[in-house]
Design a protein that fits this description.
Blueprint: H1 20-91
Length: about 90
């Protein structure tokens, strides 16, 4: 097992400037916040796109159901017409 030792330097040097450690932490926090904002925006876009696609799928499903019902009515009507014509031929 490898042991690592983290040595922390003082936050400020003798001139009151930020230490390299504090600068690194601040930079890391800045990068993480920037990445977090980017991912948040991507997530928002994905959710909006998902909602748009869900609504589109719902409309397509409704259209599909309407067309299926129309087809069933036409097939039933054609079957009734064919059946009545066949009955008329046999009754003559």
């Amino acid at each position: 097992m490898v042991s690592t030792t983290l040595t922390l330097t003082p936050m400020h040097d003798y001139c009151g400037r930020l230490s390299l450690y504090q600068f690194s932490v601040s930079f890391f926090q800045y990068k993480m916040e920037k990445l977090n904002s980017k991912l948040l925006m991507e997530n928002l876009y994905i959710m909006q796109e998902n909602e748009r696609l869900r609504k589109r799928a719902e409309l397509l499903n409704q259209e599909n159901q309407t067309l299926l019902t129309e087809l069933q009515h036409r097939l039933a009507s054609a079957a009734t017409t064919t059946s009545s014509k066949a009955n008329n031929k046999f009754n003559k």
